[in-house]
Design brief:
alpha+beta; 8 helices
Length: 280
């Protein structure tokens, strides 16, 4: 069985949901970006943040930058690269939702790491985003006094959707009280930029080889949700960022489920804990 033993308190919730006594909350649309780099000594590395212990969802877990879609992510922005319609086909989403997901992915990554997938033109990208002026804009995005469109417009920037690739789609199991319908993207950190721990939601960050991070999770050293572990396991097969970005993907929705097995509560993972490759 491809499953994880859950704490006993989940037994009643699983039974209540199965019996229809409790309705699971709707899953909020979200986006996360696996930021990658090639290190001269360590090879392919991914950027991870450890969520602070006070967070309501996944406290203490290592995650990729990302978060929920904001209603204003629907605002049209200057755009270069694959269109929202193309992203929608990749992620089985309508064009409007696909636009929101891509904007949320770029916005949340900047808010949590200062990595910004945008440039003055569709063929360029911003350099180092550290500095007081960038931090002021980041804070304004965080407190929602500045929309993502206003941020790009003020700086004369174009969103570079071509710098990302679709990677995965996971939905939080129904037994959780907070649920997310999350699309995963992968992207290389742009030349000249530096990822930093700037998020109030994280108390530690790390650039780490995917295989090493996955091993720490399996050994119980790092707390990690199944989608993060599955993604790192997949990425451990690659040697360079270019190989990841060139890998063809067929996105399959993955939604673990809670089950009572032999009287014990379990989180049952999808039969395919990783996404299939597809030609072309």
């Amino acid at each position: 069985m491809n499953g994880l033993r859950l704490p006993d308190e989940f037994r009643q919730r699983i039974e209540d949901i199965d019996a229809g006594r409790v309705q699971p909350p709707a899953a909020r649309h979200a986006a996360t970006v696996v930021v990658l780099r090639d290190h001269s000594e360590h090879g392919l590395q991914a950027f991870l943040l450890r969520r602070v212990s006070s967070m309501a969802f996944a406290p203490g877990a290592y995650v990729f930058p990302g978060g929920s879609v904001d209603p204003r992510d629907a605002d049209p922005v200057a755009w270069a690269g694959p269109s929202p319609a193309e992203w929608g086909r990749a992620f089985a989403a309508d064009e409007a939702l696909a636009r929101e997901l891509v904007c949320a992915a770029v916005r949340e990554t900047f808010e949590e790491s200062l990595v910004l997938l945008a440039g003055p033109t569709g063929e360029s990208v911003v350099g180092d985003t550290r500095g007081e002026d960038w931090e002021a804009d980041r804070q304004a995005l965080l407190d929602r006094s500045l929309s993502f469109r206003e941020f790009l417009d003020r700086r004369g920037l174009v969103l570079r959707s071509d710098l990302m690739r679709p990677w995965a789609h996971w939905i939080t199991p129904a037994i959780e009280t907070k649920r997310y319908d999350t699309r995963f993207f992968v992207a290389a950190i742009p030349a000249g930029q530096r990822a930093r721990d700037v998020s109030t939601e994280a108390d530690r960050v790390a650039w780490v080889k995917p295989a090493e991070a996955a091993a720490k999770a399996r050994a119980g050293e790092w707390a990690m949700l199944p989608p993060t572990l599955a993604t790192l396991t997949e990425l451990s097969r690659f040697e360079k960022v270019a190989d990841v970005l060139a890998a063809p993907r067929r996105i399959v929705v993955q939604e673990p489920r809670g089950e009572i097995i032999d009287g014990e509560p379990y989180l049952v993972l999808p039969e395919e804990a990783t996404h299939d490759y597809a030609p072309g």
